Fold this sequence. Notes:
The chain is α/β, with parallel strands linked by helices. The chain is built from 16 helices and 21 strands. Helix 11 (284-296) links the parallel strand 10 and strand 11 (306-312). Helix 4 (80-96) runs antiparallel to helix 6 (113-133), helix 4 (80-96) crosses helix 8 and helix 11 packs across helix 12 (316-328). Bound molecules: 2-aminohexanedioic acid.
Amino acid sequence: xxxxxxxxxxxxxxxxxxxxxxxxxxxxxxxxxxxxxxxxxxxxxxxxxxxxxxxxxxxxxxxxxxxxxxxxxxxxxxxxxxxxxxxxxxxxxxxxxxxxxxxxxxxxxxxxxxxxxxxxxxxxxxxxxxxxxxxxxxxxxxxxxxxxxxxxxxxxxxxxxxxxxxxxxxxxxxxxxxxxxxxxxxxxxxxxxxxxxxxxxxxxxxxxxxxxxxxxxxxxxxxxxxxxxxxxxxxxxxxxxxxxxxxxxxxxxxxxxxxxxxxxxxxxxxxxxxxxxxxxxxxxxxxxxxxxxxxxxxxxxxxxxxxxxxxxxxxxxxxxxxxxxxxxxxxxxxxxxxxxxxxxxxxxxxxxxxxxxxxxxxxxxxxxxxxxxxxxxxxxxxxxxxxxxxxxxxxxxxxxxxxxxxxxxxxxxxxxxxxxxxxxxxxxxxxxxxxxxxxxxxxxxxxxxxxxxxxxxxxxxxxxxxxxxxxxxxxxxxxxxxxxxxxxxxxxxxxxxxxxxxxxxxxxxxxxxxxxx
Length: 517
Ligand code: UN1
Protein backbone atom coordinates (compact mmCIF):
# COMPACT_ATOMS: atom_id res chain seq x y z
CA UNK A 1 0.00 0.00 0.00
CA UNK A 2 2.78 2.43 0.88
CA UNK A 3 3.74 4.56 -2.11
CA UNK A 4 6.94 3.29 -3.55
CA UNK A 5 8.48 5.09 -6.47
CA UNK A 6 10.03 1.93 -7.85
CA UNK A 7 6.65 0.16 -7.96
CA UNK A 8 5.11 2.78 -10.19
CA UNK A 9 8.02 3.65 -12.45
CA UNK A 10 8.33 7.24 -11.23
CA UNK A 11 12.13 7.33 -11.44
CA UNK A 12 12.02 6.04 -15.02
CA UNK A 13 9.36 8.60 -15.88
CA UNK A 14 11.43 11.46 -14.46
CA UNK A 15 14.49 10.36 -16.36
CA UNK A 16 12.53 9.96 -19.61
CA UNK A 17 11.32 13.52 -19.15
CA UNK A 18 14.81 14.84 -18.48
CA UNK A 19 13.85 16.05 -15.02
CA UNK A 20 17.26 15.65 -13.40
CA UNK A 21 18.95 16.37 -10.09
CA UNK A 22 16.26 14.76 -8.06
CA UNK A 23 16.98 15.45 -4.41
CA UNK A 24 20.30 16.91 -5.42
CA UNK A 25 19.65 20.59 -5.71
CA UNK A 26 18.63 22.63 -8.65
CA UNK A 27 16.72 21.54 -11.68
CA UNK A 28 15.68 24.39 -13.83
CA UNK A 29 14.85 23.02 -17.26
CA UNK A 30 16.00 24.26 -20.61
CA UNK A 31 16.09 27.92 -21.42
CA UNK A 32 15.60 28.90 -17.85
CA UNK A 33 18.08 31.22 -16.23
CA UNK A 34 16.84 30.86 -12.68
CA UNK A 35 19.18 31.75 -9.84
CA UNK A 36 16.80 32.60 -7.03
CA UNK A 37 15.79 30.86 -3.83
CA UNK A 38 15.03 27.15 -3.85
CA UNK A 39 11.48 25.95 -4.29
CA UNK A 40 10.92 22.49 -2.91
CA UNK A 41 8.51 20.16 -4.64
CA UNK A 42 6.97 17.60 -2.30
CA UNK A 43 4.72 14.85 -3.58
CA UNK A 44 1.33 14.73 -1.86
CA UNK A 45 1.35 11.02 -2.71
CA UNK A 46 4.06 9.99 -0.23
CA UNK A 47 5.15 13.31 1.25
CA UNK A 48 8.66 12.94 -0.18
CA UNK A 49 10.76 15.77 -1.51
CA UNK A 50 11.02 15.15 -5.24
CA UNK A 51 13.36 17.98 -6.17
CA UNK A 52 14.39 21.55 -5.54
CA UNK A 53 14.00 24.12 -8.25
CA UNK A 54 15.47 27.60 -8.36
CA UNK A 55 13.07 30.52 -8.47
CA UNK A 56 13.40 33.25 -11.09
CA UNK A 57 14.84 36.56 -9.91
CA UNK A 58 14.09 39.91 -11.56
CA UNK A 59 17.45 39.74 -13.36
CA UNK A 60 16.71 36.18 -14.55
CA UNK A 61 13.30 37.30 -15.67
CA UNK A 62 14.75 40.10 -17.75
CA UNK A 63 17.05 37.63 -19.50
CA UNK A 64 14.11 35.36 -20.26
CA UNK A 65 12.17 38.31 -21.66
CA UNK A 66 15.13 39.26 -23.84
CA UNK A 67 15.30 35.70 -25.21
CA UNK A 68 11.55 35.66 -25.80
CA UNK A 69 11.45 39.08 -27.45
CA UNK A 70 14.27 38.17 -29.79
CA UNK A 71 12.76 34.75 -30.65
CA UNK A 72 9.47 36.47 -31.49
CA UNK A 73 11.16 38.42 -34.29
CA UNK A 74 11.89 35.15 -36.15
CA UNK A 75 8.86 33.15 -35.14
CA UNK A 76 6.34 35.77 -36.26
CA UNK A 77 7.65 35.68 -39.83
CA UNK A 78 7.29 31.92 -40.23
CA UNK A 79 4.07 31.12 -42.12
CA UNK A 80 1.37 29.98 -39.73
CA UNK A 81 0.97 26.50 -41.33
CA UNK A 82 4.70 25.95 -40.78
CA UNK A 83 4.29 26.91 -37.17
CA UNK A 84 1.44 24.40 -37.14
CA UNK A 85 3.89 21.76 -38.33
CA UNK A 86 6.09 22.47 -35.28
CA UNK A 87 3.06 22.14 -33.02
CA UNK A 88 2.22 18.86 -34.78
CA UNK A 89 5.67 17.55 -33.89
CA UNK A 90 5.20 18.75 -30.31
CA UNK A 91 1.91 16.81 -30.15
CA UNK A 92 3.68 13.71 -31.45
CA UNK A 93 6.36 14.03 -28.76
CA UNK A 94 3.58 14.24 -26.18
CA UNK A 95 2.13 11.01 -27.59
CA UNK A 96 5.53 9.35 -27.08
CA UNK A 97 5.86 10.67 -23.54
CA UNK A 98 2.22 10.36 -22.51
CA UNK A 99 2.74 7.67 -19.87
CA UNK A 100 5.81 9.31 -18.35
CA UNK A 101 4.20 12.76 -18.20
CA UNK A 102 0.91 11.32 -16.93
CA UNK A 103 2.84 9.65 -14.12
CA UNK A 104 4.71 12.78 -13.18
CA UNK A 105 1.44 14.74 -13.09
CA UNK A 106 -0.05 12.07 -10.85
CA UNK A 107 2.97 11.94 -8.55
CA UNK A 108 3.66 15.65 -8.25
CA UNK A 109 0.05 16.84 -8.12
CA UNK A 110 -1.76 13.81 -6.69
CA UNK A 111 -4.52 13.19 -9.25
CA UNK A 112 -5.15 9.62 -10.35
CA UNK A 113 -2.88 8.20 -13.03
CA UNK A 114 -5.93 7.86 -15.30
CA UNK A 115 -6.63 11.56 -14.88
CA UNK A 116 -2.94 12.33 -15.40
CA UNK A 117 -3.12 10.50 -18.72
CA UNK A 118 -6.36 12.34 -19.49
CA UNK A 119 -4.61 15.63 -18.90
CA UNK A 120 -1.82 14.74 -21.34
CA UNK A 121 -4.51 13.66 -23.80
CA UNK A 122 -5.99 17.17 -23.53
CA UNK A 123 -2.56 18.51 -24.48
CA UNK A 124 -2.39 16.21 -27.50
CA UNK A 125 -5.91 17.15 -28.54
CA UNK A 126 -5.25 20.89 -28.32
CA UNK A 127 -2.12 20.41 -30.46
CA UNK A 128 -4.22 18.68 -33.13
CA UNK A 129 -6.76 21.48 -32.88
CA UNK A 130 -4.03 24.12 -33.19
CA UNK A 131 -2.48 22.41 -36.22
CA UNK A 132 -5.79 22.67 -38.09
CA UNK A 133 -6.21 26.21 -36.86
CA UNK A 134 -2.82 27.19 -38.26
CA UNK A 135 -4.46 27.18 -41.71
CA UNK A 136 -7.61 28.95 -40.53
CA UNK A 137 -6.58 32.16 -38.79
CA UNK A 138 -9.13 33.95 -40.92
CA UNK A 139 -10.17 37.56 -40.97
CA UNK A 140 -13.17 38.96 -42.82
CA UNK A 141 -13.33 41.07 -45.97
CA UNK A 142 -15.69 44.05 -46.08
CA UNK A 143 -17.09 46.16 -48.87
CA UNK A 144 -15.65 49.63 -48.79
CA UNK A 145 -18.08 52.54 -49.07
CA UNK A 146 -15.59 54.23 -51.43
CA UNK A 147 -15.10 53.27 -55.10
CA UNK A 148 -11.84 51.56 -55.98
CA UNK A 149 -11.15 50.61 -52.38
CA UNK A 150 -10.75 47.24 -50.74
CA UNK A 151 -11.14 46.50 -47.05
CA UNK A 152 -10.19 43.46 -45.07
CA UNK A 153 -8.93 42.45 -41.66
CA UNK A 154 -5.98 40.34 -40.76
CA UNK A 155 -4.72 38.86 -37.53
CA UNK A 156 -1.13 39.34 -36.43
CA UNK A 157 0.58 37.77 -33.44
CA UNK A 158 0.73 39.90 -30.31
CA UNK A 159 4.23 39.11 -29.08
CA UNK A 160 5.25 37.60 -25.76
CA UNK A 161 2.31 35.89 -24.11
CA UNK A 162 2.57 35.20 -20.38
CA UNK A 163 0.95 32.13 -18.87
CA UNK A 164 0.36 31.63 -15.15
CA UNK A 165 -1.08 28.20 -14.45
CA UNK A 166 -2.39 26.46 -11.35
CA UNK A 167 -1.31 23.22 -9.67
CA UNK A 168 -4.54 21.35 -10.42
CA UNK A 169 -3.97 21.11 -14.16
CA UNK A 170 -0.20 21.46 -14.12
CA UNK A 171 0.34 20.71 -17.82
CA UNK A 172 -2.92 20.88 -19.82
CA UNK A 173 -3.81 24.49 -19.14
CA UNK A 174 -0.35 25.59 -20.31
CA UNK A 175 -0.87 23.55 -23.49
CA UNK A 176 -4.29 25.12 -24.17
CA UNK A 177 -2.62 28.50 -24.11
CA UNK A 178 0.69 27.74 -25.66
CA UNK A 179 -0.43 25.55 -28.58
CA UNK A 180 -2.79 28.30 -29.72
CA UNK A 181 -0.32 31.09 -29.02
CA UNK A 182 2.40 29.32 -31.00
CA UNK A 183 0.36 28.80 -34.15
CA UNK A 184 -0.76 32.41 -33.84
CA UNK A 185 2.93 33.40 -33.96
CA UNK A 186 3.36 34.40 -30.33
CA UNK A 187 6.10 33.20 -28.02
CA UNK A 188 5.33 32.16 -24.46
CA UNK A 189 6.70 32.73 -21.00
CA UNK A 190 5.21 30.26 -18.54
CA UNK A 191 5.10 30.37 -14.78
CA UNK A 192 3.69 27.07 -13.56
CA UNK A 193 2.42 26.77 -10.00
CA UNK A 194 5.22 26.69 -7.45
CA UNK A 195 3.52 23.51 -6.19
CA UNK A 196 4.18 21.66 -9.47
CA UNK A 197 7.47 23.00 -10.87
CA UNK A 198 8.66 19.65 -12.20
CA UNK A 199 5.67 19.31 -14.50
CA UNK A 200 6.77 22.67 -15.90
CA UNK A 201 10.33 21.51 -16.43
CA UNK A 202 9.18 18.30 -18.13
CA UNK A 203 6.97 20.20 -20.59
CA UNK A 204 9.63 22.80 -21.25
CA UNK A 205 12.13 20.03 -22.03
CA UNK A 206 9.76 18.43 -24.52
CA UNK A 207 9.10 21.75 -26.23
CA UNK A 208 12.78 22.69 -26.27
CA UNK A 209 13.65 19.39 -27.95
CA UNK A 210 11.19 20.11 -30.77
CA UNK A 211 12.37 23.70 -31.33
CA UNK A 212 16.00 22.60 -31.29
CA UNK A 213 15.42 19.77 -33.77
CA UNK A 214 13.93 22.34 -36.14
CA UNK A 215 16.75 24.84 -35.71
CA UNK A 216 14.44 27.33 -34.03
CA UNK A 217 15.29 29.55 -31.08
CA UNK A 218 14.52 28.05 -27.70
CA UNK A 219 13.11 31.40 -26.62
CA UNK A 220 9.82 30.53 -28.33
CA UNK A 221 9.02 28.55 -25.18
CA UNK A 222 10.20 29.88 -21.85
CA UNK A 223 9.84 28.68 -18.31
CA UNK A 224 10.12 30.76 -15.16
CA UNK A 225 9.59 29.58 -11.61
CA UNK A 226 8.29 31.09 -8.45
CA UNK A 227 5.33 32.43 -6.54
CA UNK A 228 3.26 35.60 -6.79
CA UNK A 229 6.40 37.74 -6.83
CA UNK A 230 7.29 36.31 -10.24
CA UNK A 231 3.64 36.64 -11.29
CA UNK A 232 3.94 40.32 -10.32
CA UNK A 233 6.91 40.77 -12.68
CA UNK A 234 4.69 39.50 -15.49
CA UNK A 235 1.65 41.61 -14.59
CA UNK A 236 3.72 44.79 -14.58
CA UNK A 237 5.64 44.07 -17.76
CA UNK A 238 4.70 46.25 -20.72
CA UNK A 239 6.61 43.84 -22.98
CA UNK A 240 3.92 41.23 -22.30
CA UNK A 241 0.80 42.32 -24.22
CA UNK A 242 -1.27 39.36 -23.03
CA UNK A 243 -1.20 37.58 -19.69
CA UNK A 244 -3.30 34.46 -19.31
CA UNK A 245 -3.80 33.52 -15.66
CA UNK A 246 -5.52 30.55 -14.07
CA UNK A 247 -5.99 30.41 -10.32
CA UNK A 248 -7.83 31.97 -7.43
CA UNK A 249 -10.21 34.92 -7.68
CA UNK A 250 -7.89 36.89 -5.40
CA UNK A 251 -4.92 36.28 -7.71
CA UNK A 252 -7.04 37.09 -10.78
CA UNK A 253 -8.20 40.43 -9.36
CA UNK A 254 -4.66 41.50 -8.71
CA UNK A 255 -3.48 40.39 -12.18
CA UNK A 256 -6.47 42.07 -13.84
CA UNK A 257 -5.86 45.39 -12.08
CA UNK A 258 -2.14 45.38 -12.68
CA UNK A 259 -2.42 44.44 -16.35
CA UNK A 260 -5.30 46.86 -17.00
CA UNK A 261 -3.22 49.59 -15.34
CA UNK A 262 -0.74 49.31 -18.18
CA UNK A 263 -3.55 48.76 -20.73
CA UNK A 264 -2.47 45.20 -21.41
CA UNK A 265 -4.86 42.32 -21.98
CA UNK A 266 -5.54 39.58 -19.48
CA UNK A 267 -7.28 36.27 -19.98
CA UNK A 268 -8.60 35.03 -16.67
CA UNK A 269 -9.82 31.60 -15.66
CA UNK A 270 -10.58 31.82 -11.96
CA UNK A 271 -12.69 30.03 -9.38
CA UNK A 272 -15.90 28.14 -9.92
CA UNK A 273 -18.75 27.14 -7.63
CA UNK A 274 -20.40 24.69 -9.92
CA UNK A 275 -23.80 23.15 -9.38
CA UNK A 276 -25.82 20.34 -10.86
CA UNK A 277 -29.56 20.90 -10.81
CA UNK A 278 -31.39 17.62 -10.36
CA UNK A 279 -35.02 17.93 -11.42
CA UNK A 280 -37.92 15.49 -10.85
CA UNK A 281 -37.30 14.28 -14.44
CA UNK A 282 -33.64 13.38 -13.88
CA UNK A 283 -32.19 9.96 -14.61
CA UNK A 284 -30.94 9.08 -11.14
CA UNK A 285 -28.26 6.65 -12.30
CA UNK A 286 -26.70 9.23 -14.61
CA UNK A 287 -27.01 11.87 -11.92
CA UNK A 288 -25.05 9.77 -9.44
CA UNK A 289 -22.19 9.11 -11.89
CA UNK A 290 -21.99 12.77 -12.97
CA UNK A 291 -22.24 14.11 -9.43
CA UNK A 292 -19.78 11.72 -7.82
CA UNK A 293 -17.14 12.07 -10.53
CA UNK A 294 -17.68 15.83 -10.53
CA UNK A 295 -17.28 16.10 -6.76
CA UNK A 296 -14.45 13.65 -6.07
CA UNK A 297 -12.57 13.55 -9.41
CA UNK A 298 -9.13 15.17 -8.97
CA UNK A 299 -10.10 15.07 -5.26
CA UNK A 300 -12.43 18.01 -5.82
CA UNK A 301 -9.63 20.23 -7.09
CA UNK A 302 -10.87 21.07 -10.58
CA UNK A 303 -12.14 24.55 -11.31
CA UNK A 304 -15.08 22.63 -12.75
CA UNK A 305 -15.59 20.32 -9.73
CA UNK A 306 -19.17 19.88 -8.62
CA UNK A 307 -19.59 21.75 -5.34
CA UNK A 308 -23.38 21.89 -5.08
CA UNK A 309 -26.21 19.50 -5.91
CA UNK A 310 -29.48 21.40 -6.14
CA UNK A 311 -32.12 18.71 -5.85
CA UNK A 312 -35.90 18.95 -6.16
CA UNK A 313 -37.66 18.15 -2.89
CA UNK A 314 -39.75 15.38 -4.50
CA UNK A 315 -36.67 13.26 -5.25
CA UNK A 316 -34.31 14.71 -2.65
CA UNK A 317 -34.11 11.68 -0.37
CA UNK A 318 -33.77 9.26 -3.26
CA UNK A 319 -30.87 11.20 -4.81
CA UNK A 320 -29.23 11.78 -1.43
CA UNK A 321 -29.36 8.08 -0.58
CA UNK A 322 -27.96 7.06 -3.97
CA UNK A 323 -25.07 9.53 -3.77
CA UNK A 324 -24.27 8.62 -0.17
CA UNK A 325 -24.26 4.93 -1.14
CA UNK A 326 -21.88 5.61 -4.03
CA UNK A 327 -19.51 7.47 -1.67
CA UNK A 328 -19.38 4.32 0.42
CA UNK A 329 -17.70 2.55 -2.49
CA UNK A 330 -14.93 5.10 -3.05
CA UNK A 331 -11.39 3.87 -2.59
CA UNK A 332 -8.97 6.54 -1.37
CA UNK A 333 -5.26 6.00 -1.73
CA UNK A 334 -2.14 6.22 -3.86
CA UNK A 335 -3.34 7.76 -7.14
CA UNK A 336 -0.76 5.80 -9.12
CA UNK A 337 -2.54 2.62 -8.06
CA UNK A 338 -5.35 2.31 -10.55
CA UNK A 339 -7.61 0.57 -8.03
CA UNK A 340 -8.08 3.86 -6.18
CA UNK A 341 -10.63 6.47 -7.16
CA UNK A 342 -9.41 9.38 -5.06
CA UNK A 343 -5.85 10.53 -4.40
CA UNK A 344 -4.52 13.09 -1.94
CA UNK A 345 -5.19 16.82 -2.03
CA UNK A 346 -2.25 19.04 -2.87
CA UNK A 347 -0.74 19.87 0.53
CA UNK A 348 -1.34 20.35 4.24
CA UNK A 349 -2.61 23.89 3.78
CA UNK A 350 -5.31 22.49 1.52
CA UNK A 351 -6.12 19.91 4.20
CA UNK A 352 -6.58 22.74 6.71
CA UNK A 353 -8.95 24.56 4.36
CA UNK A 354 -10.92 21.35 3.86
CA UNK A 355 -11.24 20.84 7.61
CA UNK A 356 -12.18 24.48 8.14
CA UNK A 357 -14.92 24.16 5.50
CA UNK A 358 -16.41 21.12 7.24
CA UNK A 359 -16.34 22.89 10.61
CA UNK A 360 -17.86 26.00 9.12
CA UNK A 361 -20.76 24.25 7.39
CA UNK A 362 -21.74 22.63 10.71
CA UNK A 363 -21.37 25.96 12.51
CA UNK A 364 -23.71 27.55 9.99
CA UNK A 365 -26.36 24.88 10.58
CA UNK A 366 -25.45 22.29 7.94
CA UNK A 367 -25.89 18.58 8.42
CA UNK A 368 -23.02 16.28 7.53
CA UNK A 369 -24.29 13.12 5.81
CA UNK A 370 -20.94 11.67 4.76
CA UNK A 371 -18.28 12.34 7.37
CA UNK A 372 -14.99 13.81 6.30
CA UNK A 373 -11.64 13.32 7.95
CA UNK A 374 -7.94 13.05 7.34
CA UNK A 375 -6.63 9.53 6.78
CA UNK A 376 -3.53 8.35 8.55
CA UNK A 377 -1.48 5.19 8.78
CA UNK A 378 0.20 3.11 6.12
CA UNK A 379 -0.06 4.62 2.68
CA UNK A 380 -1.33 7.92 4.04
CA UNK A 381 1.95 9.20 5.49
CA UNK A 382 1.85 12.46 3.52
CA UNK A 383 -1.13 13.60 5.61
CA UNK A 384 -2.89 14.86 2.47
CA UNK A 385 -5.45 12.08 2.01
CA UNK A 386 -8.92 13.23 3.01
CA UNK A 387 -12.31 11.57 2.89
CA UNK A 388 -14.74 13.05 0.38
CA UNK A 389 -17.53 14.54 2.47
CA UNK A 390 -21.14 15.54 1.91
CA UNK A 391 -23.16 18.06 3.88
CA UNK A 392 -26.75 19.22 3.56
CA UNK A 393 -26.64 22.98 3.45
CA UNK A 394 -28.33 26.18 2.36
CA UNK A 395 -27.15 28.11 -0.63
CA UNK A 396 -26.67 31.33 1.27
CA UNK A 397 -24.27 29.89 3.86
CA UNK A 398 -21.01 31.77 3.67
CA UNK A 399 -19.06 28.57 3.18
CA UNK A 400 -21.32 27.44 0.34
CA UNK A 401 -20.73 30.74 -1.41
CA UNK A 402 -17.01 30.11 -1.20
CA UNK A 403 -15.00 27.72 -3.40
CA UNK A 404 -13.22 25.17 -1.21
CA UNK A 405 -10.67 23.33 -3.35
CA UNK A 406 -11.32 19.89 -1.83
CA UNK A 407 -13.87 17.07 -2.07
CA UNK A 408 -16.73 18.67 -0.15
CA UNK A 409 -20.17 18.45 -1.73
CA UNK A 410 -23.20 20.43 -0.54
CA UNK A 411 -26.75 19.14 -1.01
CA UNK A 412 -29.30 21.89 -1.41
CA UNK A 413 -33.05 21.27 -1.61
CA UNK A 414 -35.32 23.27 -3.89
CA UNK A 415 -39.05 23.43 -4.28
CA UNK A 416 -41.02 24.97 -7.13
CA UNK A 417 -39.81 24.76 -10.71
CA UNK A 418 -36.57 24.94 -12.65
CA UNK A 419 -36.46 28.75 -12.30
CA UNK A 420 -36.32 28.37 -8.52
CA UNK A 421 -33.41 25.96 -8.93
CA UNK A 422 -31.72 28.39 -11.31
CA UNK A 423 -32.03 31.23 -8.81
CA UNK A 424 -30.02 29.12 -6.37
CA UNK A 425 -27.54 27.99 -8.99
CA UNK A 426 -26.88 31.54 -10.17
CA UNK A 427 -26.94 32.86 -6.61
CA UNK A 428 -23.18 32.68 -6.11
CA UNK A 429 -20.33 34.97 -7.12
CA UNK A 430 -18.68 32.58 -9.54
CA UNK A 431 -19.90 31.55 -12.99
CA UNK A 432 -17.78 28.79 -14.48
CA UNK A 433 -19.63 25.52 -15.03
CA UNK A 434 -23.19 24.31 -14.51
CA UNK A 435 -25.35 21.33 -15.32
CA UNK A 436 -28.91 20.12 -15.26
CA UNK A 437 -30.02 16.51 -15.10
CA UNK A 438 -33.42 16.19 -16.70
CA UNK A 439 -35.28 14.37 -19.44
CA UNK A 440 -37.73 17.24 -19.67
CA UNK A 441 -37.14 19.36 -22.77
CA UNK A 442 -38.77 22.44 -21.28
CA UNK A 443 -36.52 22.34 -18.23
CA UNK A 444 -33.42 21.77 -20.35
CA UNK A 445 -34.21 24.66 -22.66
CA UNK A 446 -35.12 26.96 -19.76
CA UNK A 447 -31.74 26.13 -18.23
CA UNK A 448 -29.96 27.07 -21.47
CA UNK A 449 -32.09 30.16 -22.20
CA UNK A 450 -31.19 33.76 -21.52
CA UNK A 451 -33.01 33.47 -18.19
CA UNK A 452 -31.16 30.27 -17.44
CA UNK A 453 -27.66 29.45 -16.27
CA UNK A 454 -25.28 32.42 -16.07
CA UNK A 455 -22.18 30.25 -16.42
CA UNK A 456 -19.66 29.97 -19.26
CA UNK A 457 -20.26 26.23 -19.45
CA UNK A 458 -23.78 24.84 -19.21
CA UNK A 459 -24.39 21.13 -19.71
CA UNK A 460 -27.50 19.02 -20.03
CA UNK A 461 -27.31 15.45 -18.70
CA UNK A 462 -23.56 15.72 -18.18
CA UNK A 463 -21.75 16.73 -14.99
CA UNK A 464 -19.94 20.03 -14.51
CA UNK A 465 -16.40 18.79 -15.12
CA UNK A 466 -14.62 17.19 -18.03
CA UNK A 467 -15.13 19.83 -20.73
CA UNK A 468 -13.81 18.96 -24.19
CA UNK A 469 -11.01 21.08 -25.68
CA UNK A 470 -13.05 21.92 -28.80
CA UNK A 471 -15.28 24.39 -26.96
CA UNK A 472 -14.22 27.73 -25.53
CA UNK A 473 -13.42 27.17 -21.85
CA UNK A 474 -14.04 29.75 -19.14
CA UNK A 475 -16.70 31.53 -17.18
CA UNK A 476 -18.39 34.74 -16.17
CA UNK A 477 -18.65 36.93 -13.06
CA UNK A 478 -15.88 36.22 -10.55
CA UNK A 479 -14.56 33.48 -12.82
CA UNK A 480 -13.03 36.30 -14.81
CA UNK A 481 -14.65 36.21 -18.26
CA UNK A 482 -11.76 34.64 -20.19
CA UNK A 483 -12.09 31.94 -22.83
CA UNK A 484 -9.32 29.49 -23.61
CA UNK A 485 -8.90 26.37 -25.69
CA UNK A 486 -11.35 25.69 -28.54
CA UNK A 487 -13.86 27.56 -30.72
CA UNK A 488 -12.51 31.03 -31.58
CA UNK A 489 -10.51 31.49 -28.36
CA UNK A 490 -7.44 31.89 -30.61
CA UNK A 491 -8.52 35.47 -31.38
CA UNK A 492 -7.43 36.54 -27.90
CA UNK A 493 -3.84 35.65 -28.81
CA UNK A 494 -3.75 37.90 -31.88
CA UNK A 495 -4.13 41.55 -32.68
CA UNK A 496 -6.69 42.42 -35.33
CA UNK A 497 -5.73 44.89 -37.99
CA UNK A 498 -8.23 46.51 -40.34
CA UNK A 499 -6.72 47.32 -43.74
CA UNK A 500 -8.17 49.62 -46.38
CA UNK A 501 -6.45 49.84 -49.76
CA UNK A 502 -7.15 52.49 -52.37
CA UNK A 503 -6.27 51.33 -55.88
CA UNK A 504 -7.40 54.50 -57.70
CA UNK A 505 -5.61 57.77 -58.42
CA UNK A 506 -8.18 59.70 -56.42
CA UNK A 507 -8.49 60.15 -52.65
CA UNK A 508 -12.18 60.19 -51.72
CA UNK A 509 -12.79 60.56 -47.98
CA UNK A 510 -15.04 58.30 -45.98
CA UNK A 511 -18.43 59.52 -44.75
CA UNK A 512 -18.67 61.61 -47.94
CA UNK A 513 -16.56 64.42 -46.50
CA UNK A 514 -15.31 66.96 -49.03
CA UNK A 515 -11.86 68.38 -48.45
CA UNK A 516 -10.72 70.04 -51.69
CA UNK A 517 -7.38 71.76 -51.75
C1 UN1 B 1 -9.39 23.44 -14.48
O1 UN1 B 1 -9.86 22.85 -13.52
O2 UN1 B 1 -8.70 24.49 -14.34
O3 UN1 B 1 -13.31 20.60 -17.76
C2 UN1 B 1 -9.48 22.94 -15.87
C3 UN1 B 1 -12.48 20.03 -17.07
C4 UN1 B 1 -11.08 19.94 -17.60
C5 UN1 B 1 -10.31 21.19 -17.38
C6 UN1 B 1 -10.41 21.78 -16.02
N1 UN1 B 1 -11.15 19.66 -19.01
O4 UN1 B 1 -12.75 19.56 -15.99
